[in-house]
Amino acid sequence: MHYDAIVVGSGISGGWAAKELTEKGLKVLMLERGRNVEHIKDYTTTNMDPWEFPHRGKPTTAQKDRNPVLRRDYPLNELNPQFWVDDQDCPYTEKKRFDWYRGYHVGGRSLMWGRQSYRWNEEDFLANAKEGVGTPWPIGYGDLAPWYEHVERHAGLSGSHEDMDVLPDSVYLHAMELNCVEQTAAERIAKKWENKRRIIIGRTSNIAVPHKGRAGCQYRNKCWLGCPYGGYFSTQSSTLPAAMATGNLTLRPHSIVKELIYDKDKKRVKGVEVLDAETNMTYEFTAPIVFLNASALNSTWVLMNSATDVWEGGLGSSSGELGHNLMDHHFRVGAGGTWEGDQDKYYFGGRPTGFYIPRFRNWYGDKRDYLRGFGYQGSASRGDWRRGVREMGLGADFKDSMSKPGPWRIGMTAFGETLPYHENKIELDRTKTDKWGLPVLSFDAELKENEAKMRQDMKQDAVDMLEAAGFKDVYGYESDYALGMGIHEMGTARMGTDASNSVLNKWNQVWDAPNVFVTDGAAMASASCVNPSLTYMAMTARSADFAVKELKKGNL
Amino acid sequence: MEQQKLTRRQMVQRMAMAIGGTLVAPTVLLESCSFDPDTTTAGPVRLAMLDAIAETIIPRTATAGARDAKIGAFIDVMIRDCYYPDMQEKLNAGIKEIAVEGKNAIGRPFEEATQMEREEFLTAYDEAAQTEGDHFFKTLKELTILGYFTSEEAATDGVVNYEPVPTKYDPCAPVDENTKVFYSNI
Q1: Whole-model pTM above 0.90?
Q2: How many pairs of residues across A and B have Cβ atoms under 8 Å apart?
């Protein structure tokens, strides 16, 4: 079968590629390796009451035994196991520990994502060049700004306008609100640090107003089960219906792309070879352009598995950078405390975001003994009955006490930028295969000195701010963090200014096959400290626009 | 056989012995009173014991209690499905210990004792659970609380303000003595 374009993957960036390409008139085939998940209908647990879950959301030992990776953190649970990859079917190799939490189904991780949505700032694109880290970005903030706006208008964001250079504003439909305690803390911290440290409401792709056929957020805070109200951006709620409405989209689930079919004479890819995950039959689909949006590390897997007769390391490996410069956001360090006031105040509703403290280190003239910076996500809340296990008490008084809002407390976690290191890499491990007989990825990456130094500030600055804001019993914490836990995999097929040091050019085209576009996390040349998905959306829309123009010019 | 009511001090002393990490004391007592409830496999004896323990923590008042919410059965399922054998054994031994020691202290089967008798008896365990991080009673209390406060009975009786579709967010809602803890998901 022949199409005008093939999109590999249906998550956040794949959905955007499909929408943009179909709306520009192309007949598009979107391939998804997992099953279909239909909007609303297939959110099977979203309207269940807590008592309908026999284990109240906790994972069973059977689940734990089957999923040695997922069990390392929250992804293993009873509420939405249908959205996480089965570790037995999809193993990988860890030369060093890497936590890879995947979602193989239509919509990918757009269904379970954290939804925090931030634009990068100008400096984020300049820092590599200024500091001699990694490779210079071939694009700047100005290149992406109109595309940020383009995707924001369709995806729908909530947030507040703050006019800060460090965190450029997006287009917002409305803002969610800080609660009483967060507001007070925000005022005190802004005053103490002269507005250089600020608590603002977390910018999220949740919207509580009707938008493009979506009813909007009902403040259930059950986003990761799939939202029947279309309260947050996902492929299903936003890009897929738009792409389908054009009549130009064919969606094919259960389609594992084994490799891109490379034509060495034309130096172009002519299509993809697909393994049907249900039948194990192999199919070939052709198109003049291919968008790789299989999620960062799987897009690189596809490249590594393609054109190996020309380049042993696969398509895009001629630079020596394919598979390298693996990044995540490092976190699980921060602080918490309690709050004595506002006992007569509470909140109502499950707000699907917390507060955000934009980066302030190595900014505003500050200079540290490490590069880059970090931001914080957190929230203040009143305890519920779970506190009862740490309190003495049995009987009627205890029951009564636990049925009331507990003391106020606050918690915040820093998310830090990880630098791109050439030696942090993934490779194909051909000695191990997945359920379909395909080689798996092998991980060899770790945090280094820059991140370790940054983590000291990530903890101490949090403690300082909470103490300054008036919290009591303030404690700093640092938990085990392994790369991947942030679920922000970035790099391994980076963009750059030159074919000798990067896999992709400034339009996300593979240097060695310009009709292949990689516009997911793989393309990132650095990580910033803000959540990355909004940037993938903007990058994808920009590339799709370019691809269609080039196609019409006959350049592809 | 010792049948008279123990003073609270005597009970705490006895419990301190039993909880001290060895099962010697309960075994001795078990032999002396030939009481051997099967508290380790699912069945009426075990469920009655688990219900009684849970009800002691969360009793029926004007609103449903743990027994009404079938928390015994919930704890049984959780122990069966969510814990590995070492922890299962520890929890089951603890449940058995409460059955044996409770009967001995109170003078009647634990599950037939009054709420006050059971509370008085389990207070020593509750204290021990606060000081020993991995005490079995801490897990039983945690499971009781989790199961009860997320139960349909607790939601229906207004023990908690369970609002599955809040529709709005109020960042600064007032609190009075009747305000219940709000939640919309687990």
Answers
A1: yes
A2: 173
